[in-house]
Amino acid sequence: MAFSDTGKIWMNGSFVDWADAKIHVASHVIHYGSGVFEGARCYATPRGSACFRLDAHMRRLYDSAKIYRMQPQLGLDALTEAVLDTIRTNEHKACYIRPIVYRGYSELGVNPFPCPVDTAILTWEWGAYLGQDALAKGVDVRISSWTRAAGNTFPTLAKSSANYGNSQLIKMEAVAEGYSEGIALDTQGNLSEGSGQNLFIVREGAIYTPPISAAILPGITRSSVITLARDLGFEVREEHLPRELLYIADEAFFVGTAVEITPIRSVDKITIGEGRRGPVTEALQRAFFDVINGAAPDRHGWLTYVYPGEPLQTAGTGAAVSTAR
Ligand SMILES: Cc1ncc(COP(=O)(O)O)c(C=O)c1O
């Protein structure tokens, strides 16, 4: 979805116009991928705009920065407040949230230490990542010919810009061959994840997902789906999974901030289950969307309201409702 080119971007403590949010071409991050970032969403709920698991996303941002020996200028709480401020400044009801911590402009060389650690926060309005249809009908994917990073090479627990070279190769190969997405294997040949989403499989009533040692990003949607599935009484197993388990799965689906919960209907042109969204996927979608749409109680404290105390008119409710927690 194209940018609207409007609104403000938070850069190192100041709001600047979208068009003026520029960095120098000699900035370290451009040449060496020295950035860590997050992707979160703010949803319009009947009680007002609410960020989904903002605390977990901010924690992961600081974890990623720590792995790369970057010290953001602001502490976690202050930067979380800056995220909320950016949403308020842009008056979004619902949006995508992209904080990024990166090595800026000073000198060029592999050693990033001389370069400042800069931070920016972007927010923009964004719909379904793989299209609205995908959420209901599912997507056709392939196993990627690209493998996820080997252990002790690119740390996958860090959401770093550098890791997305691998993700881009997976995505481009899939798109070039007419698929929506690619699923990469780890270096042991077990299932890992998609270019920007985690993977789940359902077989004989149990739910499986690759563990964090399978070169995955530890997704926040993944952890939420595991919690919701257990709440619904499903057995969830985090274990190394052979590629072929996917072909014989009853259901498979992707999860992530961008794709939310998207069914997979075929892999390598092999139909998964009935070739459409299965009942377990649908039950989990319902449980997930009920939380983010405010239709179910927020039992796990996953929502952070953006405009506390102010009644907000949200789409679909037809009434002004209080956002007080
Ligand atoms: C490589 C990769 N895996 C998984 C995910 C899903 O993570 P989350 O649910 O935290 O968005 C993402 C999205 O950020 C990703 O880029």
Task: Tell me about this structure.
- The chain has 325 residues and is of the alpha+beta class.
- Helices cover 26% and strands 29% of the residues.
- It has helices at residues 28-32, 54-67, 76-89, 132-137, 164-176, 220-231, 243-247, 279-292; strands at residues 8-11, 14-17, 35-37, 40-45, 48-52, 95-103, 117-124, 139-147, 181-185, 191-194, 198-203, 206-209, 236-238, 251-256, 260-267, 270-271, 303-305, 312-313, 320-321.
- The strands form 3 sheets. Strands 8, 9, 10, 11, 12, 13, 14, 15 and 16 form a 9-stranded mixed beta sheet that branches. Strands 1, 2, 3, 4, 5, 6, 7 and 17 form an 8-stranded antiparallel beta sheet that branches.
- Helix 6 links the parallel strand 12 and strand 13.
- The longest helix has 14 residues, at 54-67.
- It is globular.
- The model is unreliable at 312-325 (pLDDT under 50).
- Bound molecules: pyridoxal-5'-phosphate.
Summarize the structure.
This protein has 325 residues and is of the alpha+beta class. It has helices at 28-32, 54-67, 76-89, 132-137, 164-176, 220-231, 243-247, 279-292; strands at residues 8-11, 14-17, 35-37, 40-45, 48-52, 95-103, 117-124, 139-147, 181-185, 191-194, 198-203, 206-209, 236-238, 251-256, 260-267, 270-271, 303-305, 312-313, 320-321.
List the main descriptive attributes of the protein structure presented here.
single chain; alpha+beta; nine-stranded mixed sheet; 29% strand; 325 residues; eight-stranded antiparallel sheet; disordered C terminus; binds pyridoxal-5'-phosphate; globular
